[in-house]
Specification:
- By secondary structure, this protein is of the alpha+beta class.
- Among the domains are: about 100-220, Uridine Diphospho-n-acetylenolpyruvylglucosamine Reductase, domain 3 (2-Layer Sandwich), CATH 3.30.465.10; about 220-335, Alpha-Beta Plaits (2-Layer Sandwich), CATH 3.30.70; about 345-430, Alpha-Beta Plaits (2-Layer Sandwich).
- It is about 35% helix and about 20% strand.
- It has helices at about 5-15, 25, 50-65, 120-125, 145-150, 155-160, 165, 195-200, 235-245, 260-265, 295-310, 325-335, 335-345, 360-375, 405-420, 440-445, 445-460; strands spanning about 20, 45, 70, 90-95, 100-105, 110-115, 130, 165-175, 180, 210-215, 215-220, 220-230, 250-255, 280-290, 315-320, 345-355, 380-385, 390-395.
- The strands form 5 sheets. The protein has a 5-stranded antiparallel β-sheet. It has a 4-stranded mixed β-sheet with strand order 1-2-4-3. The protein has a 4-stranded antiparallel β-sheet with strand order 13-14-12-15, sandwiched between helices.
- Helix 10 (about 260-265) crosses helix 13 and helix 16 (about 440-445) packs across helix 17.
- About 50% of the residues are buried.
- The model has no long low-confidence stretch (mean pLDDT about 95).
């Protein structure tokens, strides 16, 4: 049986006391996941400061057969960075590896270490007139390594894609301690399987991402945000397609139902309705330009939305006149989960995706099916319609009290997952599998899990990388 303390001794013998934290008070904050649903145990946190130190620690872990749990900002929504409850693994923290090694303005590329916080990357690239076009609510704590390992999404996926599309190369330490260097920036490379792409979305189960070469785009010169009133999700998708046919400047397209908007207006202080009319559905649309010579985004949205309102596809619309108003619109969107908890109480939350063209019908049919199966509940979705990813919530309603999740949450989860799978979709659109969805993935797609395990076994035969996650 492996002994984690032997690994701690080996690390300290080689690097000194400071690279292995063993004080329980210092370890405790990193043992629980972001949502507070999973809690693990670990005898130590290893904290390398360079790729060479990561490689040495991983090699020692392989020698002592001690599992490692790579961890960045610990902002996983599915328990993906939480150590096992039996204390068998050590946490490998990448937080000290927080250097932006290079920003190449001409190539529009940045090389950032795994521990670089997303907001820090945003600020650093902006100083060069560039930006890293991925953002999310946890930008103040989420790290580059974690974003890569979960193939993070966010509100700009519509135009720029998820993390996978923004990674131009990866440096990583593989389970045997060898270093994979994919930071050379080759535009063409046909030497077989792409280890870089295997590591994206692998949740730390195939190795430890230490740095990445990331794609940048010009900084936003100006933006405008429109708030639309719509009759249905299908009208929302039709609107998006009409806009996309005319411009490539649409960067965000978020959808939400009237009931969710009302929850925000009731429970989030300082918010107000963007429109003076009531609509069954709403959409938030953001357009940006990156140069003074381009058509101002407010004018662009006005020109493109006017005919859509004229023919009734859009029932009503308002376009932000100031940056403060644009932020106010986004605040409504960003407050939806908090407001729904306050307004509706217990709910199961599902991070799902289906094909974009199928999403409007799926939203209606899935909500109806869940409400039939669990009378008294209510179900609806909101989020990133343009990339086929919504956050589908099933609320207890009149069916139960505070203990409803424990009583029926699992059954609701299974039904929603069954509906998503039957529609050819994914039970995890952007948060990963982690601990939370591991059993469901195997239940629904055993062949896929067998294939994933075959890859893991080939690269990590001793199963030491982030045990108990994904596969």
């Amino acid at each position: 049986m492996s002994d984690p303390l032997k690994l701690v001794e080996a690390v300290r013998a080689r690097f000194g006391e400071r690279l292995a934290i063993t004080d329980p008070a210092d370890i405790e904050p990193w043992l629980t996941d972001w949502r507070g649903r999973w809690h693990g145990e670990s005898a130590a946190i290893l904290q390398p400061g360079s790729t060479a130190e990561v490689a040495a620690m991983v090699a020692l872990a392989n020698e002592h057969r001690v599992p490692l749990v790579p961890q960045g900002g610990n902002s996983s929504m599915v328990g993906g960075a939480t150590p096992p409850a039996d204390g068998s693994a050590l946490i490998l923290s990448l937080r000290r590896m927080n250097v932006i090694r290079a920003i190449d303005v001409g190539a529009r590329r940045a090389v950032a270490e795994a521990g670089v916080i997303l907001q820090m990357l945003h600020e650093a690239t902006l100083e060069h007139g560039l930006r890293f076009p991925l953002t999310l609510g946890a930008k103040g704590s989420a790290t580059v390594g974690g974003l890569i390992s979960t193939n993070a999404g966010g509100t700009q996926v519509l135009r720029f894609g998820p993390m996978r599309a923004l990674v131009d190369g990866i440096e990583a330490v593989l389970p045997d301690g060898t270093i994979h260097d994919g930071l050379t920036g080759l535009k063409k490379d046909n030497r077989g399987y792409s280890l870089d792409q295997l590591l994206v979305g692998a949740e730390g189960t195939l190795g430890v991402v230490t740095a990445a070469r990331l794609k940048l785009v010009p900084a936003i010169h100006t933006r405008a945000v429109a708030w639309l009133g719509l009759a249905s999700p299908q009208r929302a998708l039709d609107t998006l397609r009409a806009l996309e046919a005319e411009t490539d400047r649409i960067e965000g397209f978020e959808i939400l139902p009237q009931e969710s908007l009302e929850a925000v207006l009731t429970h989030i202080p300082g918010t107000r309705a963007p429109l003076d009319s009531r609509h069954e559905w709403h959409a938030l649309v953001e357009a940006t330009v990156d140069s003074e010579a381009a058509e101002p985004p407010a004018e662009l949205l006005t020109r493109l939305l006017a005919p859509l309102v004229g023919r009734g596809l859009v029932e009503n619309a308002v376009i932000s006149a100031t940056e403060a108003q644009a932020e106010a619109f986004w605040r409504i969107r960003d407050s939806l989960s908090e407001a729904e908890r306050a307004a509706f109480g217990p709910a199961t939350q599902h991070d799902i995706s289906v094909a974009v063209e199928d999403m409007p019908l799926f939203m209606a049919e899935a909500a109806a099916e869940v409400e039939r199966a669990f009378p008294g509940t209510s179900a609806s979705g909101f989020g990133h319609l343009g990339d086929g990813n919504i956050h589908f919530h099933v609320r207890a309603g009149t069916r139960g009290g505070p203990d409803w999740l424990e009583q029926e949450g699992h059954a609701v989860q299974r039904l929603v997952d069954d509906l998503v799978t039957a529609a050819g979709g994914s039970i995890s659109a952007e948060h990963g599998i982690g601990v939370m969805k591991k059993d469901e993935l195997e239940r629904l797609q055993p062949d896929r899990v067998r294939q994933l395990r075959a890859i893991k076994t080939a690269l990590d035969p001793r199963g030491l990388m982030n045990p108990g996650k994904l596969v």
